[in-house]
Design brief:
Elements lengths: L1 E8 L6 H18 L7 E6 L2 E6 L5 H9 L4 E10 L4 H16 L7 E8 L8 H15 L4 E2 L6 E7 L3 E4 L3 E2 L11 E5 L5 H10 L4 E8 L6 H18 L2 E7 L1 H10 L5 H19 L5 E2 L12 H8 L7 E2 L7 H10 L3 H4 L6 H4 L11 H8 L5 H10 L2 E5 L2
Parallel strand pairs: 5-6, 5-7, 10-11, 10-13, 11-12, 13-14
Antiparallel strand pairs: 1-3, 1-4, 2-3, 4-8, 4-9, 7-8, 12-15
Helix pairs in contact: 5-6, 7-8, 8-9
Bound molecules: adenosine-5'-triphosphate (ATP) and magnesium ion.
């Protein structure tokens, strides 16, 4: 019996033309993610269903993982494909399929059969298929029993050109297929939060570019490599990321030498935002993304966020972690596999220049006043933009 998979996706808001676009985007993402297994799989998109059919041996675990981690997929169902649709054969193959899926000793649950007959020429109608197959399974497996209202398992059978049977449902990561919502620029540091923030926005269908501000020699090559590694992990979900690496040392030193030290972080953050905004506009991005969350550190109090936000005037700043506790963020970073890399102990550029007592309640008026001392800053921002090194990463 051929093995295949039926993929389910959320259908809210994707009616009509949008649905077609959504399915196209999902199929092309699946194609990209299954590329490693070139030629072994066929993606079939017909009548509101997406099937992946295999033509030769493959590693089931790996493929299921690939599919369930594709944005847009809510469920992956392993399917038995029955070529010969004569009734006796359908029963026999369904039996084999259930043994393979559950193991012979685990066939001890309540069930019901749900049938869908897309090929109206088939000799039996749906209610008859349900009844006949139900009887057959009860006779075949003595520890199965029927419960039509609240079954532990539902055995789905679908008659098309072939007959498809499935029952197990593996949860997918959901969201929207990549590329259905434009592109955003992620401010990616080496910490725990920003990779999670990027992942969450990409999960809603946005492709990502990223920018990392490094400050050699205060931050090492290894810190930079760590950020590239993080971008790679994120890109295994999101597709290729253009990671911009900007040399921020001169700007950082200049602010350090010119402005009150307790305002250092917030002013630095504002210039990061401005540079990211320029890069984002050049790359056609529709927003910036940061890993900030209210109150996490001094530079993320509500007042600090207000002042940081004011630095950007042409794009919205998405902060998907704004209401998350640190532990929630850590949990996601473990799930998406960025945690172990994020906690590697390489310094990030903000830890070197941190003040002992940073302002927690900055006001825009005072910060802007301090910034007027930075008479050469426009020139320096221009120079920093010239250091842009773009690394294209693909995990
Ligand atoms: P993270 O874990 O993302 O580093 P954090 O809690 O350390 O977050 P901050 O250092 O205050 O937070 O930075 C807040 C946000 O600013 C980060 O989530 C990130 O989006 C951005 N950011 C900070 N430092 C950098 C950097 N060196 N390069 C790019 N973006 C940065
Ligand atoms: Mg950080």
């Amino acid at each position: 019996m051929f093995q295949a998979y039926l993929l389910k996706y959320a259908e809210i808001g994707i009616k009509g033309k949008n649905r077609y676009k959504f399915e196209q985007a999902l199929c092309s993402q699946l194609q990209r993610r299954l590329k490693k297994n070139d030629g072994k799989f066929k993606i079939i998109n017909e009548r509101g269903r997406i099937y992946i059919e295999a033509s030769e041996e493959f590693d089931d675990n790996e493929i299921v993982n690939t599919m369930k981690n594709t944005f847009g997929v809510t469920e992956v169902c392993p399917v038995g494909v029955i070529d010969d649709s004569s009734w006796d054969n359908v029963c026999e193959k369904t039996k084999e399929f259930l043994i393979e899926q559950y193991g012979e000793n685990n066939l001890n649950f309540t069930f019901k059969v749900k049938a869908r007959r897309s090929d109206k020429r088939y000799s039996m109608q749906s209610p008859e298929i349900c009844m006949e197959l139900g009887h057959y399974l009860l006779e075949t497996f003595e520890n199965l029993s029927v419960d039509v209202h609240n079954p532990q398992e539902t055995i789905f059978i679908e008659v098309r050109d072939k007959v498809y049977v499935y029952s197990k449902r593996i949860k997918g990561i959901g969201g929207m297929p990549l590329g259905t919502n434009g592109k955003a620029m992620l401010l990616l540091s080496g910490g725990i939060d920003s990779p999670v923030a990027g992942y969450m926005i990409a999960r809603r269908g946005m492709a990502l570019d990223a920018v990392y501000f490094h400050a050699p020699p205060y931050t090492s090559e290894r810190a930079k490599e760590k950020v590239i590694d993080l971008a790679k992990i994120v890109s295994s979900y999101t597709g290729p990321i253009n990671l911009h690496i900007i040399n921020f040392t001169d700007i950082q030193m200049y602010i350090y030498q010119t402005c009150p030290h307790d305002e250092l972080t917030i002013i630095m953050r504002r210039y990061m935002m401005k540079i990211a905004e320029t890069l984002a506009n050049e790359a056609g991005c529709l927003s910036l993304i940061t890993g900030e969350s209210i109150g996490q550190v001094a530079s993320q109090t509500a007042q600090s966020l207000l002042v940081t936000d004011s630095a950007v005037s042409t794009l919205p700043v998405y902060r998907p972690l704004i209401g998350f506790d640190k532990q929630d963020i850590i949990n996601i970073s473990k799930e998406i596999d960025t945690f172990e890399t994020s906690i590697l102990p390489y310094e990030d550029c903000c830890t070197i220049f941190v003040a002992k007592h940073p302002v927690t309640k900055p006001t825009l008026k005072y910060i802007e006043k301090s910034e007027t001392l930075l008479t050469d800053i426009d020139e320096m921002v221009k120079k920093a933009l010239e250091t842009d090194e773009v690394v294209r990463v693909e995990g």
